[in-house]
Amino acid sequence: QVQLLESGGGLVQAGGSLRLSCAASGSIVRVDAIRWYRQAPGKQRELVAEVTNGSGTNYADSVKGRFTISRQRNTAYLQMNSLKPEDTAVYSCNADITPWHSRRADYWGQGTQVTVSA
Asked: Rounded CA gap, 6 and 35, in Å?
């Protein structure tokens, strides 16, 4: 059974840092892109950052220069620096995964809360 396990959320003051992790586990043939999304109360979910299988990266304009996504095999990390109160949201990991004996599909983690106080 394939799972995405997230960790690293929490409460931090503005200007602080947090590091999120997303680990894909289970009977996996291949993990392609891994993405972090976030959703704040009353707002639509937005793509924060993406890292491809070849370690290419993409970022939302709102986090460029502050957030860095990286990857080591089937685990992705989101280093968040210079956090702002508007970064407060539930952050969820998403990945394109091909399991053994099954087709490539879209998987989601359970989400982790990030709260930035002013």
From this structure: 12
pLDDT tens readout for residues 60-115: 999 999 999 999 999 999 999 999 999 999 999 999 999 999 999 999 999 999 99
For residues 95 and 24, the answer to whether their CB atoms sit within 8 Å is yes
Helix (H, G, I), strand (E, B) or coil at 85: helix
CB atoms near residue 50 (< 10 Å):
19
Query: Residue 54: which pLDDT band, with cuts at 50, 70 and 90?
Result: confident
Rounded Cα distance between 52 and 37, Å, is 15
CA dihedral 70, 72, 74, 75 (to 10 degrees): -60
Distance between CA atoms of 85 and 93, rounded to whole angstroms? Answer: 21
* SS3 of residue 61 by DSSP: helix
